[in-house]
Amino acid sequence: MKNGMTGRVLAAGLAGLVLGFCAADAAPRTAEQAAVALERLDSAAQGVPILLIAGSVSNKAGQHEYFAGCTLLANWLRQNPGVVPVQAAEGWPTDESLIDRAKVIVVFADGGAKLPFLEPQRMERVRAAVKRGAGLVLLHQAVDVPASVKDEIGAWMGGVWQSDIGARGHWDMEFSSFPKHPVTRGVEPFSAPLDGWLYNLHFQKDAVPLVSGSVPDKSRSTADAKSHVGRAEVIGWAYERQGGGRSFGFTGCDLHRNWGVESQRRLVVNGILWAAGLEVPEAGAKVENPAADLLRWMDDKTKEAKAK
Length: 308
Fold this sequence. Notes:
Elements: H1 2-25, H2 31-34, E1 48-54, H3 66-77, E2 83-88, H4 97-101, E3 104-108, H5 120-131, E4 135-139, H6 150-157, E5 159-160, E6 167-175, E7 190-199, E8 202-203, E9 208-213, H7 223-226, E10 233-240, E11 246-250, H8 262-275, H9 301-307
Parallel strand pairs: 1-2, 1-3, 3-4, 4-11
Antiparallel strand pairs: 5-8, 6-7, 9-10, 10-11
């Protein structure tokens, strides 16, 4: 009994050390960010819970603004009935039961080896959520997954980016037409200047392309990408899994200022609502955005750079 108690005490101490290191590694939040309620899910709230997971501070100011982007998405989702958005920061909720309760999990974070849910226990939690039919939405870099899990996450998402055939970069894109689909309701032609994109993904055969546009041929950095010169490339799609559940992917939103484009906001919010199994309004989701809100919750990357 004594040894068992000692083991539990040691385990608790080690867990505390790990949490301490994680807290120390996290970038300090701005005053505006600190005022945002994180991981609050009122059991009495009416509507399906949508978990928005923001990745850790990344890249330059104005790019990879994961916290600000998720806060804006939560604000826009609240304008639409039937949903209860819940936010988590630093790539993963401290209350992991939120994963279990979420109707949709939205990940806006770095990808590749930095994808936040790659750790085996986290991966198992997401796997269980997908198995029960939860929606999954991956934005920007999060569609880039390690080769070791590309088949599994590809089956969840309907499409993943890999360096073997995929290409990426920054350029202006214009989207002039969209197929008829609940996710494209109310989405008008729009442009996204200087944003960052990933394209030429590995797609499942049932993935539905929703957003496609021209890319500079000089961006075609792989042999496969070069074999499709002139082809419009898919950067947004919807997918209904054979075992149940829906997924939506969009590889843009690298550049924070492009959330100021109403059609981009509506496209992503529509995608989240659709992944939740909700009816998207014929005119599309409400996504009103006061101009002052666009920059309100951005990371203080100047301080972060000085600290490094």
